[in-house]
Design goal:
The complex is a heterodimer of chains A (156) and B (284).
Chain A (H helix, E strand, L loop, with lengths): L1 H20 L24 H9 L30 H4 L2 H14 L36 H11 L5
Chain B lengths: L2 H14 L14 E3 L3 E3 L2 E3 L9 E3 L7 H6 L8 H13 L9 H5 L14 E3 L4 E3 L1 H12 L10 H12 L15 H11 L10 H5 L6 E2 L2 E2 L10 E3 L4 E3 L1 H10 L11 H13 L9 E3 L1
Parallel strand pairs in B: 9-11
Antiparallel strand pairs in B: 1-2, 3-4, 5-6, 7-8, 9-10
Helix pairs in contact in B: 3-6, 7-10
The chains are: A mainly alpha (156), B alpha+beta (284).
């Protein structure tokens, strides 16, 4: 238990550092849809990434199946299975896909998770109301790194 | 995408909850209401639908239990509201001392109205939804107060008007003076709204039949509205449904009764031309 607590503190420290260092979404450099540079310089946390796959703004399994996450009910059928994603893609490509999949796959239905401008009628989360001030990207820079770290474990 | 794998994973998730339904596209069930009203739940797509060959009622995507609740008016919870509307049909209200019945006779005499709305109204110079028409009758003919657009008086009345047209094919006009409104609705249908940048077409044209998390996507047809939803145990209006789907894209929604949603309604209704009117339907 003590160790879990320490880990939690470490994670929140990382998150704070990440905010200070991360490039603004518009400043991320894509090359053929891939992003070579870590968004934070802080290694992604696989466990945190695993949670983001299921919940909140990530909710990746709304659209994707992942055998490793079979303990969670209801995987969507919109996108391809992510089993073996790490065999198909380099880390930089996975970062690019998670940050803004529309660069790798033009017109894809997959939301852009590290982007905060250029929307039509954006709202204030799920309230249906107009946003107040600038939008936050769907995932923070560190959350993107966490998800990428998790995806890198998906080998067949 | 590998559908076989997708289904495999889905089946694992489902069997954990010991549900036996097979996940798939529209099923093959047929709907006959009260043993007599035959409902067309599958039809050749109207010529204006470029990306679909066949249109399906949302009924074809629901589980057997939900489907069977719509096959008998005694089991369809929507009919409690239809009966309430029968009372308001006969109730005199407003300065003119009239009820709906004073001008229109029996509700059954209105059979055939629902499948043609939204519809161009020459006098008003605009496309009107059935709700707008009902409120027009209330203010102009009855000199009574308007009903709230998505309030229960209105929704119950739309359910009554729908019930008497069940089995008749949706047949809204999209040309002539209605065309500009229809075009606007079409543009909305393909616009990727909100922070999730999702259009109606992303879910209901490109992915009907697929699961999105726990939801089995239908074509998002509105031939069955108002819809009694088991989830919120009330009748749901078309505009509230649109509002909810747009909100779920993390967008600023449109207001029920707005010209925007009437345009979207005309367009979505036209995508169901050929399907039977089946409201009040039962959905989850």
């Amino acid at each position: 238990m003590g160790r879990g607590f320490q880990l939690a503190i470490a994670a929140s420290l990382c998150a704070t550092m990440a905010v200070a260092d991360a490039p603004a979404p518009a400043d991320v450099v894509y090359e053929d849809g891939a992003v070579a540079q870590s968004l934070t310089g802080v290694a992604g946390d696989v466990e945190s990434g695993r949670k983001i796959m299921n919940k909140g703004a990530g909710n990746c399994i709304a659209c994707h199946q992942v055998t490793d996450l079979q303990d969670l009910p209801f995987h969507g059928e919109i996108g391809p299975s992510l089993d073996g994603a790490a065999d198909r893609w380099e880390e930089s490509q996975l970062r690019g896909i998670v940050a803004n999949a529309k660069i790798m796959f033009p017109d894809t239905m997959m939301p852009s998770f590290y982007k905060n401008t250029g929307y039509i009628r954006p709202g204030n989360a799920y309230t249906g109301k107009a946003p107040e001030g600038e939008l936050s990207p769907l995932l923070t820079a560190q959350e993107v790194e966490d998800v990428v770290a998790y995806l890198l474990t998906l080998k067949e | 995408m590998n559908k076989a794998i997708a289904r495999g994973v889905g089946a694992v998730a489902l069997s954990a909850l010991s549900v036996t339904a097979v996940l798939a596209d529209a099923d093959d069930d047929q709907l006959v209401i009260n043993g007599e009203i035959e409902i067309v739940t599958e039809a050749a797509a109207a010529a204006h639908l470029e990306n679909l060959d066949t249109v399906y009622s949302g009924w074809r995507f629901r589980k057997d239990e939900t489907q069977s609740a719509q096959a008998d008016d005694f089991e369809n919870p929507g009919f409690i509201f239809v009966e309430t509307a029968m009372d308001s049909w006969n109730t005199v209200e407003g300065e003119a001392g009239k009820s709906c019945a004073s001008c229109h006779g029996d509700p059954e005499d209105m059979a055939g109205a629902k499948p043609t709305y939204p519809k161009w109204n020459e006098k008003a110079g605009e496309v009107r939804s059935l709700e707008m028409q009902v409120n027009g009758c209330r203010t102009e003919q009855m000199q009574a107060e308007e009903w709230k657009y998505t309030g229960s008086d209105m929704t119950n009345m739309i359910a009554l008007l729908s019930s008497v047209s069940r089995g008749m094919p949706v047949n809204v006009a999209i040309d002539g003076p209605a065309q500009a409104t229809w075009e606007k609705g079409k543009e909305m249908y393909y616009t990727r709204y909100g922070q999730l940048e999702l259009s109606c077409a992303n879910c209901h044209e490109d992915n009907y039949g697929n699961m999105i998390r726990a939801d089995h996507l239908s074509q998002g047809q509105i031939n069955g509205f108002p819809a009694y939803r088991l989830k919120n145990t009330k009748l749901n209006t078309v505009h509230d449904r649109f509002k909810g789907c747009i909100r779920d894209t993390r967008a600023e929604t449109f207001s029920p009764s707005s010209a925007d949603l009437v345009a979207l309604e005309l367009y979505v209704m036209s995508r169901g031309n050929g399907l039977s009117v089946e409201g009040p339907s039962v959905r989850n």
